[in-house]
Amino acid sequence: MSKAFDEIRNEEQNLLCRSYSRYPLAIARGQGSRLWDVDGKEYVDLLAGIAVIALGHCNPEVCEALETQAHKLWHVSNLFYQREQLDLAARLLSTTHHDKAFFCNSGAEANEACIKLARRYMRKIKNRDACEIISLAGCFHGRTLGTLALTCRDSLSDGFQPLPDGFRQVPANDLAALEAAISPATAAVFLECVQGEGGIVPLPADYLRAVEALCRKHDILLICDEVQCGLCRTGKFWAFQHAGIRPDAISVAKSLANGLPMGAMLATAEMAKGFEAGSHATTFGGGALVSAVAAKVIEIMLRDDLAARAGRLGDIMREKLIDLQSRHPQMVREVRGQGLMIGIELASGGRKAWQKLIDNGYICNLSHEKTLRLLPPLTIDEKDLDDFTKALDSILSEMEAEKN
Ligand SMILES: *Cc1c(COP(=O)(O)O)cnc(C)c1O
Asked: Are 262 and 292 in contact (CB under 8 A)?
């Protein structure tokens, strides 16, 4: 490790709460699909700030939108009407069957909005005392107390109990378990069509359609967390659209403002009746600056049909990775994903492969110590994806040689 890196690491130990386990990298600069560390070493970024930098680092058009708005208006609070929120809402809603938007600042907050709206809709519109939300094992919905309860993973809630009541979880891909869990207390089923933090696990389309049918049968809400899999990443604008289902609400965040903190809930007009003036609020939600930036992001996604691009590059990439798997059947257990949301599960040596990728100038995520998780910018060059696959190929060969 370099002197510049050691300095920044030591300073952080003095100054910041210990809540993150960092990669052994200190990043100084980014452009497009490239990052540079404090020593000037260049990396191909296949993580994109965890699916946030969909249009690449410092995208010039987004920079321009940011700069223009920065000299006009940043924030006035939601006590005022603001054109910027409406331009963004209209663009976002043009991509889906939903009718209404609520803006906030993160994925967890977008999910909190969904939970609150689901409960309030049941109580106030349906006159049912239904507050319970059912989630699926392997999910991740955030780190607030409510979304931790929804996520239902002991390792994440360790030390934080008590969590709010009214959440239960069933195994994914098990309709009988889901139906058995539904009761008069149930308000909604909450799911990610492609589980992200869970290690890139797409839920089968017929399972999703069957879940929707169960929700309709029992007259409960279906909510899709599109925070990671939404916004073009899987090859359609929204991941739920692959299955042809119509969730009552979705949550959005991560790449919505290409790196500025922003979240949204999109809901049908019917479900949106659950809120009235004063029901829910957040100071920064939909501020003029982030809204103007997000509106530019959505404009570019639509104009350049980045959904189709992600689908096409994802198909090519997965084909190459399956080819790689056939060359390293002992090392690669499974290649999963949809569009540019790709998981490469290794049989062993996940951390070693991940570290060697970094040494070779490729940044990706390591999930559960075994799955290399790729969430590159949707604008990444096909050649960068090819080069990554070649680098991984030689790394796996090296590791095989070391074993023998
Ligand atoms: C990242 C993520 C969240 C949480 O988003 P934050 O902005 O970190 O609060 C929620 N759901 C999914 C699917 C995510 O990937």
From this structure: no
Strands 34-37 and 42-45: antiparallel
Query: From the CB of residue 128, how many other CB atoms can be counted at a distance below 10 Å?
Result: 16
Question: Ligand 1 pocket: which of 150, 197, 201 to mutate (most atoms <8 Å of CB)?
Answer: 197
pLDDT of residue 1: 74
The radius of gyration of the chain from alpha carbons, rounded to an integer in Å, stands at 21
pTM: 0.98
Residue with the two structure tokens 């797409």: 202
Q: Give the ligand 1 atom nearest the CA of 147.
A: 10
Phi and psi dihedrals of 33, rounded to 5? -100, 20
Structure tokens at 142: 């955030």
The pLDDT assigned to 403 comes to 84
Instruction: Quote the ligand 1 centre to 222 CA distance (angstroms).
Output: 18
| Separation of alpha carbons 226 and 220, rounded Å | 19
Atom in ligand 1 nearest the alpha carbon of residue 105: 7
User: Collapsing DSSP states into helix, strand and coil, what is residue 340?
Assistant: coil
Buried b (16+ CB within 10 A) or exposed e, 258-279: bbbbbbbbbbbeebbbbbeeee
Q: Is 196 in the pocket of ligand 1 (CB under 6 A)?
A: yes
CA of 150 to the centre of ligand 1 (A): 12
Q: For 72-100, what is each residue's pLDDT tens digit? A: 999 999 999 999 999 999 999 999 999 99
CA 209 to chain centre: 21
